[in-house]
Amino acid sequence: MLTNFFDALQSEEGFNSFIQTSMIIVGGLIITHHILPFQYGKSYTRGKSILHFEVPDKIAVILVHMSGPSIFLYLFYKYDENLLSTPSILYLIHYTHRVVIYPWFRSRHSRPWPLESILFFSSTNFVAGLILAHSIISKLQTRTIILQVLLSLIFLACAFLAGYHDYYLCSLRQVGESGYRIPSWICFNWVSCPHYTFELIEWFFFGFFIKMNERILFWLIEFLNLSIRASSSTAAYHKLFLSKYPKRKNLILPIFYSPVSM
User: Fold this and answer.
1) Mean predicted confidence (pLDDT) in 36-53
2) Among 115, 123, 73, 119, which residue's Cα sits nearest to residue 96?
C-alpha cells in the first residue's frame, strides 16, 4: 500500500494533488494551533496525555527527528538515486546531529513527551522529508555553484547557532537540579527561543534548493513545527516564572522588539 502511494506521487498530477492537500492541512493546523495551544515540552503536565501514553524525552527526540530522514533515505534507495547533491548532504548533516548526537545532551530530568505530540511532529517531519526527496529526485531546482555555496554557508552557520543555543539550554541545569532556569544569554535577550529562530532561518534558505510549490509547503511545515515549539516553551516560561519572565520577548522573530534586560 505504501509503495503504491509513493508510485502515485511519481506522476505530476498525483504529486501536485498531494502538495495542495498538504498545504490546506498544514494551513489549518497553523490556524488551529493559535486557537488551541499544543501541549509539548515544558508546557506538558505529566499524566495528561490525550492518548494516555508518554515517552521519555531522549527517545521522543530521536523518534520525532528520524521520521523525515528515514523516508528521505528510503525513497533514494527505492528509486536508486544518488545522494551526493548539496541539499541531500545538508539535510542529512542536520538530522544526523539531531538523531545521533543532540538527544544525549538533554537532561534526564526533561519532561516526557505525550504520544500525540510525537505522532504529530513525526508526521510533519515525514511529509517534509517526503517532499524534499521527491523534489530532489524528480526536479531539483537548478542553482549555480556560487549560489549553492552561499546557501550552504548560511545553512551551516544557522545550524551551528541553533545548536549552540540548544546546548546552552542543556547546560543550564547544574548537577542535581531538576527544575528550569530563565535563559539569559545574548540572543535569549531578544527572543524566547533563538534556537528555533536560527533553525527557521536555516530552513528558509534551504528551501531555495527546491521548486516553488514544494518550497512553500516545506516552509509551512517548518514554521508550524517551530512555532508550536516556541509558543509552548514561552508559555511554560511564563507559567513557571510568572512576572520574573520578560513579557516583551517575542517567540521566534525579534522584529520590532528591542533587547530585554534580564
Assistant:
1) 79
2) 73
How many angstroms separate the CA atoms of 224 and 228, rounded? Answer: 6
CB 20 within 8 A of CB 217: no
Q: Using a cut of 0.85, tell me whether the model's pTM lies above it.
A: yes
Q: Where are the domains of the chain?
A: 51-244
Radius of gyration of the chain (CA): 19
Q: Give the residue with greater pLDDT, 78 vs 38.
A: 78
224 close to 203: Cβ distance less than 8 angstroms = no
Model confidence over 18-30: pLDDT tens digits?
Answer: 888 888 888 787 7
C-alpha span between 124 and 89 (Å, rounded): 20
The reported pLDDT for the residue numbered 256 is 40
